[in-house]
User: Fold this.
Amino acid sequence: MEHSQLSKKILGKDKKLRGQIQNLEASKSLAQRQFRSVNLFINEQPGFLEEEEGEERLRLRQQDLKPLVPVKNVNNIFDLKLNFGDYFIDYTRDGNSLLMAGKLGHISMMKWKEKKLVTEFNVKDKIRDVKFLQNDSLFAVAQEKYVYIYDSNGIEVHRLKSHPEPCKLEYLPYHYLLVSIGKLGVFNYQDVSTGATVAQFKTNIKDARAMAHNPTNAIVGVGSHRGDVTLWSPNTGVPLVRMLCHKGIVESLAFHPSGNYMTTIGSEGAFKVWDVRTYKELYDYFTPRPATVCDISQTGLLALAYGNEVQIWKDYYQAKAKRPYFKHTFENDRVVNDLKFAPFEDFLGIGLHGGFSSVLVPGSGEPNFDSFEVDVFQRKRQRKEAEVHKLLEKLPPETITLNPEIIGTVDRASADVLAKERKEEEEEAERKRLLQKKKKNRMRGRDTATGQEKRKESVHDAKTRLRLKEKLEMKTRLRKAERNKVSEETNLLESGDVIDNIDVFDVVRKRHKSN
Assistant:
């Protein structure tokens, strides 16, 4: 109410803008009332493990948990042994499809709950990361040289040459943006709905091992070998925030679903919890060995792996936790390479050296889902309609900011400040326009850098030939004129006429020289 009165006071003369702000406030209050009414029917709570007297959660194995869960969940505990190196994994947003990619080129997609194989093929190339796009119909693979897009049948759809030597991939579902960072520090934002490159800039981050995005504001965080984490937006070519997090390499990082907390893992054997609202460290923990990868579930559980062991931490960001919530150990030769929590399920997918494992983690999945956001039981027709609605509701890249709450608010800066900002924006746009030279559209072939250099050389050679030709013609004309003059003077001497100002010896010398 106070904000409404303030908007009336500030915008008393602008009736149109005042009406828009009032409609925005009314829709916001209506959404809050509907959210409170819906919460009355959401009474499902995640089922966490509770210790009884004389029992320890850390000693529980998967075999001990099978009698406590339904048969459907028992069938989802399985292991796959594959012989294509370290495996990277990813789940779709609804949690129904699983994507696995071996470092040596093996790619497989399956409906992991039904154990139904969708596609399987080998690209015969080195793979560094995989990522589902909007659904299971398309997925991106970071290969040795470029990023490739494949469909659910394993057919190559696109080869993105603007993503050279990619190391890590991220996908922003509300903006339809595929994000990658290359081995040499090239940062790319590409719109997968139009194919246009939204932003591309060079950074000083080499061989990045950690990249994740904040689900609330779509800011992408990248860890470097210097121990710092930088937060990026496609609207600026420089990092919005730079945080010094570790003394060693940042191996992995993950954001809490609320968007308020970030967990980072360093090569010195510590993982830390940060408040991204104040950019301050909350708690730090240590593992027996340096961890290499981490992920956070929908309910806030943290999973991290070191060697062949996986630890699950609960309420680690609210207070200093004394010990892990859960632990799972593999055989000595099965080292963990990647891990992801399955959405809306109490399972953790683990990519291993030589296979994949699905582990039951009670309480990790969100029990209540919003069918307007992500429908777990979506049918084919509903999926087509949802794709159209999502495209219509796609957010522009300009909405990616550290504080998304400022969108839709009134800029209360003075008129002088607004005029100065507008002038700077116009000057920057004019500078960019002058830097970008318009190239002539060619109907045949493609314009390449090699072709441009060849054309420059040919033009240079033609100009040189013309200049040499003109110089030769000038010398020829001068020589001819000199010869004609000598012949005239010689004729006059032979005729016996007396001519003043003629040196006879000079005439004879020139005649011998011309002959």
Q: What stands out?
A: The longest helix spans residues 449-495. Helices lie at 2-10, 15-38, 62-65, 71-75, 380-392, 415-435, 449-495, 504-514.
